[in-house]
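Researcher: Next sequence.
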Amino acid sequence: MAKIIKLPKKKKANIRFIYFILALWTVYVIVFGITYLTRKKVTIYEVKPGSISENSTYIAIIQRSEELVTTPYSGQCNFLVSEGERVTIGDNVVCYDNSGELTSYINSFNESSNELSKEDYKAIAKEFNEFKKAYNSKDFANGNLLVADINSNIKAYMSKNSLNKLNEYTRSISSGFNTVKSEKTGIITFHYDGLENMNFDELKFSDFPDTVKPMNNIENYSQVSSNSTAYRIVTSQKWNMYIKLSDQDARNLADKSTVKVYFKKNNLTMNSAFEIVNTKYGLYGKFSFNRLMSDFINDRYVEIEIDKSVNEGLKIPKTALVKKSFYVIPKDVAFEYNGKMSVSVRRKDSKGELKDLVIDLNIIAEDDDNYYITDLDFYKDDMINTKINSKYYGSDFLTLSETKEFEGVYWVNNGYVIFKRVEIFDSNDEYYIIKSNTKYGISKYDNIIYDSHTVKEDEILY
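Model: Next structure:
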């Protein structure tokens, strides 16, 4: 007869233990899930090197050494020099015809008189040779400037023969017209705008139009009255240009002595000496040039772009910025203790007795005279001993009261929120560029809070 083997029954204690473990695991999962779903959502931003390079567009005002010359005569005006031509003292510039004889002579000019002479070709070749001698590989873009110069001068050479004949004719007859001569040496133009005597030391933002405005022009062969403008003469190749600056523009350009300027009207780019001018009416950028005045002789306003590329710094989102005030403490009351800057503090204990303590300073910034500290380790009634350092000549004790505001970000490398100061030197709509390697500041690849409004200082995140 076969034996019947009875299996041992499981102990109820073992089953209860398994149930207990399962229950604990379930509670853990539920608590973890609730904590995960309800925890504060913060976005961490890793600080990286960056820069903001953008060309800003401005309407600029041009300043020259120039003056208007009026005529005492009336009649039909006839130009005796070309637009943009250089004259010397005593040269005929404009004549005014009342008889009609001069007009008849002008109509008899032969079109062949507009051909270039050998001397004209030599003058153009000379410009190329001068450019070749002065050429620098850094000024490659100035090749466009040479082309613009040549094109402008060719037009003057084309009409010079006709004007020479006209000058000869006016000298050969003695009645029926009057001539206005040049009283100075300079470049002649028949465009004007009435701003020739503008005081640039008193520029106002209202002097800058929203769009470029053209000058008025005197038409050749037109009828004019006495005391009207005969011509404008520019007596120097040096010229300046001004733009209005915002505070941010001024910060971006503060350390620049030269800038690259792009002129939209003729697609030219050239370097310029630059300085910021501070007047009672605002901040202005001043550009100084000593060539190509003739290219802009008939412009009072020009549209330009400035290359505002800046040195690379650290790039942070604007949402990360936070402002906070910190206490000011004179450096002369601090001393080094165990490798840290500290102060001696007299504080009441729980029994109301005064005790002298040494407290380390939590410094966020400093200058020549002061440290700027948090109040985390200080009580309201703490008195800082000022006589511990003989350099300080104030009272025996001082309390924390004076503050100064700083810009900064919330640094979270260690999992809790700490304010770190930043120094901004450029910005656009989304980002700030801050100085790198600043004392008490942040470094590249540090973690900061993307939106400073989502956390509080000293908060523990993880």
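Model: The radius of gyration is 40 Å. Confidence is low (pLDDT under 50) at residues 134-142, 155-159.
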